[in-house]
Amino acid sequence: YYPWNDGDSLIITPERWYVDGDSWVADLSLLGKEAGVTQEDLDKVLVVPNPYIVQSGFKGNSSGSIRFTHLPTKCQIYIYTISGEFVDHIAHDDRVDGNEFWDLKNASNRDVAPGLYIYTVETLNNLKKIGKFAIVR
Known about the structure:
Elements: H1 39-42, E1 46-48, E2 52-53, E3 66-69, E4 74-81, E5 86-93, E6 100-102, E7 115-123, E8 128-136
Parallel strand pairs: 2-8
Antiparallel strand pairs: 1-3, 3-6, 4-5, 4-7, 7-8
């Protein structure tokens, strides 16, 4: 799977001047290959904006949404209230885009209440990131 289209180009800039007899090989066989997810990769996951302030007018991808950034290719996002009540689940599976938007609605498609929320991002190799975000009305 390659994330480019016909007509896209790749420019390779050498780090020094060519001299007679120089040659080089570009091995593009690893482009598009998935790398294993590490805990350091998961530690980069963020929720933006945090806190989400309803009156701010932030639209994200759609009206009234927050964004999870730096997600691994495949993962599950679970959102809970501060008391541990399940709110929603998002399945992320995108080889190109490491973002996922949440519409601030629970699993029953109702607007969530303002407050502090806990999220977990879980990968296929059983790594987990736990974080928090706030919604202010």
